[in-house]
Amino acid sequence: MNGLLPRLLALLLLVLAWPAQAGLLVLSYHDVRDDVAPKGDADRYAVSTANFVAHLDWLRSHGYHPVSVQQVLDARDGGAELPSRPVLLTFDDGLRSVYTRVFPLLRAYRYPALVAPVTSWVDLPAGQVVRYGPRDFTGDDFVTWDQLREMQASGLVEIGSHSEDLHRGVTGNPYGNQTPAAVTREWDGSRGYEPQADYLARIERDLTTSRDRIAQALGRAPRAMVWPYAAYNRETNAIAARLGMRLSFDLEGRSQQADIGMQGRDGVTEQPLDSLARLLLYDNPDVRDLAGELRRDLARDGMRAMQIDLDYVYDPDPEQLARNLDALVQRIHDIAPSHVFLQAFADPDGDGAAEALYFPNRHLPMRADLFNRAAWQLRTRAGVRVFAWLPVLGYRLPDAATQAALQLHAPDPRDVPRLDPGNPRTRRIATDVYEDLAANAYFEGLLFHDDAYLRDDELPAYGGGSPAARTRGLIDFTLQLKAAAERWRPRLVTVRNLFAQPVLEPHSEAWFAQTLDAFQHAYDYTALMAMPRMENASDPDRWLRQLAARVAAKPGAIARTVFELQSVDWRDGTPLPPGTLLHEAELLRAAGVRHLAYYPDDFLGGHPALPEAREAFSARQFPYLEH
What we know:
This protein is about 35% helix and about 15% strand. Helix 6 (about 195-220) runs parallel beside helix 7 and helix 9 (about 320-335) packs parallel to helix 10. The protein is an alpha/beta fold.
């Protein structure tokens, strides 16, 4: 009994601290079988029947209220609000177990659900197979139209679409990488990339076919689109909405508030541009895994990022380029950061301005069609989140007359060559570049380069003239770039580089048009250049502690600031002594810093040394070599 009372008190405090009104929780299941291994099953997305039942019991006993697609639509349309702790169960792919295992349990618990089959897999003809997970699946592995009809007739199950034939990869670049069909303009060696109009027409044909097959077989067209691999963009969502699928779903997270009950200015509900997030259940989570995930404070997750130069990967020899890329992916896998900030532009002379780009675009030369290839391999082989690192103003355009007309005349020749942000031509060029990147490549966020600054004697009237107005003007410019990219890559996370001086000397906002307070309001994260040698600090440790203290003094700033360290002393171009990077990372963690990054990484030369980089920047719980 001595140990029971403290545990009961702790549990009571946890329950009291849990908010009564949480955002909509959408859970994503696939196969539910009796014979799933506790961990390490060949099918990572299969959940055992016993664990699924335990999930239902836990949700019920902890105050979650199951909701239907109709209730979500009503809430979105400004009707009845959802109950506290609403949860929507979803089942992808149309596997037979949703009828044989899940449906009886839904009836027993009276829980509504959304079932989204790939319509070309329903009633799969004899002799046809689908390559699914660890083996080929036949018609016996998928639901039939009769089974879907019976589940719909129960009033508990809504049938949505998981596409007709988008649950597959297509060739996404000249190197043969397979990327999700719903968001990829397919590469063909004889004609290049699929034209945008052809790509959108292909998606519309697929969704129309899926919708019509469901409507014909079940007497009711689908109202929800569940995107295979969570791959969608705002153009494809618009197609789904036009076809009557007003709800769409991805796999981007645990819960959300923003997409429920959005009212337009005229009182009519606006169709949100993005999909509802879902929590993917994989590796057969038991009830402790589920409870731990739902109770985990996402705000306390730490970012460990590496900023990577594609200029170091590029080589005119395709075979050497491939070897360089393999070396990069292997090193990222071995270090295991959570994020990579990946250069999308070519800057071979190191002046900070883009002379070419690593993706097809309308305005600059393409040095190599490399960004999408590298980003996809880093995501799929190294398991990191990839953010695209691009300039805001720093471009060297191929037409000398245009460059001369747009470039700022900086008083210091060491400044990054930058285009005039007040000129509409600059805004159009930069906006096109960001949209072209998003249309041609995979990434999950944007890092705005450190070229987005204005000296106090550059464009003195820009934005309105005051330091705060000039800062706001550049922020608005970057948010315009984000909006252009989000046409093709929704839910982008934004990070912007910030020089240290505006943090240590707030009056220096006038010299940079940058300030931490404004960045904290505008972006998801601020990448603070915590580089004491670049600032000629006589005592780097003291300088870093002072910088961390200034950020910590601002409410909430530590949670959204990435401290980016340097691994090279640019004053003489030499790598920092072994142990320096680890020492400074530990110093900042001791000062309360949560998010860390470093630049550059010499993955070909092995600097910083792998053990040091792993210990300082791995996102693994135990970042040490296994023997």
